[in-house]
Amino acid sequence: MAVLLPGTGSDADFARRALAPAAESLGARSIDAVEPRSALVDGYHRALNEAAREAGDGGRILIGGVSIGAMTAVQWALRSPDRVAGIIAAMPAWCGRPDGTAAAASAALTARRIAADGLETTIAQMRAGSPRWLGDELARSWRVLGADLVDSMRAASGYVAPTPTEIAALDVPIGIVGVVDDPLHPVDVAHAWARAARRSAVTTITLDELGADPSVLSTAGAGALRRAARTR
Length: 232
What we know:
Elements: E1 2-5, H1 12-25, E2 31-33, H2 40-55, E3 61-66, H3 68-79, E4 84-90, H4 102-117, H5 119-128, H6 132-145, H7 149-157, H8 164-167, E5 174-179, H9 187-196, E6 200-205, H10 207-212, H11 216-229
Parallel strand pairs: 1-2, 1-3, 3-4, 4-5, 5-6
Helix pairs in contact: 1-11, 2-3, 4-5, 4-7, 5-6
């Protein structure tokens, strides 16, 4: 079984298009893409807990996550390492506290703008400063998330991610995908995770590749996870 966790402001539809091909190629017999709600991290943990229960005694789940979905996946795996077959961690945004990070600041600012100016005005502002493909994706997902969007953005902006020291304790294979030209998800963070984890591999892509086909995260992530699984 595989559980897919979207990034901040994204939704289950994007997570499915980006990561379900990887889960299928790795042998997952069922795939659950979780829709973010206002209690963002708690909701992701509940979904992972439920998947672990469905897997039964001794069953392990594959977790795929983007941005905060990746960070939450590692956090949960640190608590339940015997329930995780592997992790595809795409575009991790920071380690430890979010203070001063671009992604956390962007989430907090977006939440304030939506609360002050409304969703459609904020979408127009976002589109003005984004590549067309990203503007289209976020406009769609923000409208889907609706009333849950502001609270989930606020939750993401204050999330304390696993530190390199914590990641070093994880004895689960993790395939990491970094984006070399994404200022909100610095590729240095992906490499820091890879250096810290015991069983890891990292693959890098570009924003243009992601915009052309979200499933590039599957190709890159599944390949990295297979390499990580061969390490000890």
